[in-house]
Amino acid sequence: MAEPKKSTRTSSSSSRSSTRKSAAKRSAAKRPAAKRSAAKRPAAKRSAAKRPAAKRSTSAGPAAKRAARARASSKATTTRSRSASKPKARPAKRDPLAAQGMAAAEEDFASRDYVIPGVDADDPHPYKWHTGAKRDHGGVDAIEIIDLVKQFGRTRILNGCNLGLPDNMISMVLGPSGTGKSVLIKHIVGLLYPDAGDVLVHGESIPSMSDDQLFETRKKFGLLFQDGALFGSMNVFDNTCFPLRQHTDKSEEEIEEIVNRRLREVGLTEAMYKMPNELSGGMRKRAGFARALVLDPAIVMFDEPDSGLDPVRTALLCELIREVHEENGGCYLVISHDLGTARRIAEFLAVLWKGKIVESGPADELFNTDNEFVRQFLNAEVKGPLAMD
């Protein structure tokens, strides 16, 4: 009886085993999606195959990356140094008159495409008073203006201006408002470049200079602006020290000695530690004058130093300019339209009108000229070529 039971268990066990195998086969048969998904994986392999650069980059390591960055930086530095060594190219000079097919001497005012302040469009001879005569001053010119033309848009401010300013004299350029006096100064120091013509300072052409040459040449100049142009965050002493600290290697002791001397010359010793907003208009101009002198410039220019001052302070400033010039010498250029200032300090006069010099020469000769316009302007007469319009 035991033997039949054993065979029943064996047969039952093999039956269960075959059932499990069948179930496994059915389960495997129900997974075709997984096989299809696996079959679709060659795309990933292809994608991986298309990334050799990334593999190379990864295999290159940090050292290779640093080397690549170093090569790129070296190349950029070389490019910058080459470009820096090349002089900055300036735009080619173009004569506005030549662009219209005419020479300066053949200017046709009826067909011009620009306007000149003070020139009537219907006047065929607007320069009949401009003799251009330059009377001999007995010296050498420190500054020469040659056929200078400057135009802003359609407005021509300077139209063939010619002028020589003598060395070791106080020169003054006079003229009605809006005739280009301040524009003339900006050409002399290289803040503006002419459309035609040239500017010579001690025989050297300002428009032809490189930036480095112009930077060095500007150290020859001292400039007093209309309102003093002091830095509002600095006191008088530091304002006056600024050019010396910026452009020289002098010690603070040397700078202090020079600044104290210049401030003493202009009468501001007691006000050296005041801020600009604590100064009167005349004091600000004197502080600006002291700052213009600290580099011992060969040329000092004053852009309307008498503007905004009462007659007494104007006279005192003129006296100061004359005294400092007697002590230091050099070419002093004063831009103004004040006749009192002209009579007090000017040794050489030039009258600018309609973009050109009418006449120039020693002051005493121009005050006695026969030129109708110059006589009217220098004597403030009502009748003459210059009218309100």
Structure commentary:
With 389 residues, the protein is an alpha/beta fold. It is built from 14 helices and 11 strands. It has a domain at 131-141 and 164-189 and 204-378: P-loop containing nucleotide triphosphate hydrolases (Rossmann fold, 3-Layer(aba) Sandwich). It is 44% helix and 17% strand. It has a 7-stranded mixed beta sheet with strand order 1-11-10-4-9-8-7, sandwiched between helices. A 4-stranded antiparallel beta sheet has the order 3-2-5-6, covered by helices on one side. Strand 2 (141-152) and strand 3 form a beta hairpin. Helix 8 (236-247) packs parallel to helix 10. The N and C termini lie far apart (147 Å).
List its salient traits.
44% helix, Rossmann fold, 389 residues, disordered N terminus, seven-stranded mixed β-sheet, four-stranded antiparallel β-sheet, alpha/beta
Condensed summary:
This protein is of the alpha/beta class and 389 residues long.
Q: Indicate the percent of residues in helices.
A: 40-55%
| CATH arch. level architecture of the domain at 131-141 and 164-189 and 204-378 | 3-Layer(aba) Sandwich
Which sequence of SSEs, written as H and E, runs from N to C?
Answer: HHHHHEEEEHEEHEHHHEHEHEEHH
Low-pLDDT runs: 1-13, 32-40, 42-60, 80-94, 99-106
CATH topology of the domain at 131-141 and 164-189 and 204-378: Rossmann fold
| Alpha carbon gyration radius | 42 Å
| Separation of the first and last Cα atoms | 147 Å
Shape: globular
Task: Please state the average pLDDT score.
Answer: 77
SS elements, strand count: 11
Biggest beta sheet summary: 7 strands, mixed
| Spatial ordering of strands, largest sheet | 1-11-10-4-9-8-7
What structural category characterises the helix and strand content? alpha/beta
CATH class of the domain at 131-141 and 164-189 and 204-378: Alpha Beta
CATH homologous superfamily classification of the domain at 131-141 and 164-189 and 204-378: P-loop containing nucleotide triphosphate hydrolases
Q: How many helices?
A: 14
Strand residue percentage: 15-25%
